[in-house]
Every structure is written in C-alpha cells, then in structure tokens.
Request: fold
Amino acid sequence: MNNEKQHFTKEFVQQNSKRHSKADSRILTFIAEFLTATGTDLRNMDTIRQLFRAGYCYYFAQILKDAFPGGEASWAAPFGHIIYVYQGIPYDIDGVYKGDVMEYIPVKYLGKAIDDFRHIPDVAYNATEQELAKIMFDYRERQKGGKTYECQD
Reply:
C-alpha cells in the first residue's frame, strides 16, 4: 500500500474510532481500502461513495456481511438506507454510520420490501409508508416477544 493510501486509511480509522470507540478497526480498514481501491484522488473516492449512498447501499452491506460474517444487513428505519450492523455498531460506505435512524431492522424482516433496495429492473416493490410502519411495528413486537408475522430467513 502506498503512503497516501496508508495515511488515508490511518486517518479514516482514527476518525471513525472517535465516533464509536468500539468500532472494529478491521472493518474500518476494509472500507478505507475499498474507497481507495482506485487511488486517493477525492473524485474517485466520491464516485465510490455516491454509488453506495445513492441506492446501492444494500449491496455494500452485503459486501461487509460476506467479508465480516456474524453481523446483519439492516434497514436504518424509517429511512431509505441499508447498513451493516456488526457487534452492535452500524457501518456503511462512510465507516461508522452517523445518519438518521430510529432503529436498525435486519433486512430479513422487510419481506418483499427489500426489492426497493435491490434496484433490479422490473422488480421494485414500492412499499407504502403504511407498510414500512407495519414492518417497524411488527419488528418491535417481535423483539418484545409479541405475536407478529414470520420473517424471511
């Protein structure tokens, strides 16, 4: 790894560790190296960030899940973002996730609504606000041990 990439990676890990002291440095290093795979030019890194911020966040969560098994690709409810939660800490293309969220719901509870995040032509589900609210309610009830629908395992 060249000096610029090493410097970026070190700074990226340090900044994200300040955000959450228990953040996994392996995951943060992986994300930093992912961002600098085409070099440390800010335009290149911004292009990669935009790709995974503007709709393809589901796939980045899957990349992290494959590289670091044991966590969950999760919906940052009620907003349109999928992140990866590993040992209770949420990650996305920017490192430790710092966006708006009410709760993290594993994507397996989204049912067909996950298709809205997958961006496959002619496969969108177009979940309504009411359906998303029901998913959130059912998930909370399930966490409390109440009766809810079954998730897609």
Q: What stands out?
A: The chain has six helices and five strands. Helices lie at 3-19, 25-35, 42-53, 57-67, 115-118, 129-144. The radius of gyration is 17 Å.
